[in-house]
Amino acid sequence: MNVLIVHAHPEARSFASALKDAAAAELRSLGHEVRVTDLYAMGFDPRLTRADFLETADPAYFKPQREQLHASEHDSFAPDVQAQLDDLAWAQLVIFTFPLWWFSLPAILKGWVDRVFVMGRVYGGGKVHETGGMRGKRAMLCLTTGGPGSSYSSDGRNGALGALLSHVQWGMLHFAGFDVLAPFVVWGPARASSEDLAATLTVWRERLRAIEHEAPVAVEPLGG
Ligand SMILES: Cc1cc2nc3c(=O)[nH]c(=O)nc-3n(C[C@H](O)[C@H](O)[C@H](O)COP(=O)(O)OP(=O)(O)OC[C@H]3O[C@@H](n4cnc5c(N)ncnc54)[C@H](O)[C@@H]3O)c2cc1C
């Protein structure tokens, strides 16, 4: 299986980075091909600008989706976007590793989605959800939080995590056509003991051992 890990954490010794490293090592040891896109380490630019395109469809007015469609039709994405699109096309499973920031993705990862989930290749022209460009591929979120799990239950202070992640799991991944696997969530690693964190990495590695055959879960639209 070809696995792409897209990682967003500014500290290489963070627990989110340990989850990324454990995933890459475990999946490789199982014989899978693994590519890692470490967004902070590579200095990924999260801004969607005209620099994403080698040609211009409309020089008078910058409409990003129109330019993405034009670049999809003319193979004229800038090399950094094209490299990410090539990795996406190659991947059968995409794992996103990141800390929950403001109930969402770190901006650098959201910017990766803005620039790489392009109209014309990943979605658009009627290709959304079950017919999205990523159909046949699977994706999962692997994230750390600051708050405890109890604060992310349906009657918790922050609301149910599944609902908070809906804009990512439904609005980005399912919208693009991915089948979505259940997220792997590490609640408040900064407050956990080193023994508990080691045990969490063991559970994560065990889950990865069977991930090739793991069934997707149902994800819901916002307010669903
Ligand atoms: C801008 C911003 C917004 C935020 N918004 C939210 C929010 O909306 N909701 C929320 O809940 N939280 C929020 N947080 C908190 C954030 O989610 C947590 O700080 C983060 O998820 C913790 O994960 P980490 O990887 O950064 O852990 P770290 O704090 O980097 O690591 C935790 C511990 O793991 C240890 N560790 C690392 N590697 C290993 C290893 N291999 N084995 C054993 N131990 C190891 C580290 O030494 C450290 O002690 C926010 C933080 C920021 C900066």
Can you summarize the main beta sheet? 6 strands, parallel
User: Looking at the structure, what is the overall shape?
Assistant: globular
| Element-level helix/strand string | EHEHHEHEHHEEH
Ligands in the model, by name, code or SMILES, are: flavin-adenine dinucleotide
Tell me the CATH architecture: 3-Layer(aba) Sandwich
Could you tell me the radius of gyration in angstroms? Answer: 18 Å
Low-confidence stretches: none
CATH superfamily: Flavodoxin domain
- Helix fraction by DSSP (H/I, runs of at least 4): 25-40%
What structural class do the secondary elements suggest?
alpha/beta
Distance between the termini: 32 Å
Q: Write down the CATH topology.
A: Rossmann fold
The count of β-strands is: 6
Task: Provide a descriptive summary of the structure in words.
- This protein is an alpha/beta fold.
- The protein has one domain: 3-Layer(aba) Sandwich (Rossmann fold).
- The chain is 35% helix and 14% strand.
- The protein has 7 helices and 6 strands.
- It has helices spanning 15-29, 64-74, 79-90, 107-116, 161-164, 166-176, 194-209; strands at residues 2-7, 33-38, 93-99, 138-144, 179-180, 184-186.
- Strands 1, 2, 3, 4, 5 and 6 form a 6-stranded parallel beta sheet that branches.
- Helix 1 (15-29) packs parallel to helix 7.
- The longest helix has 16 residues, at 194-209.
- Flavin-adenine dinucleotide is lined by residues 9, 11, 13-16, 18, 99-103, 144-147, 189-190, 194, 197-198.
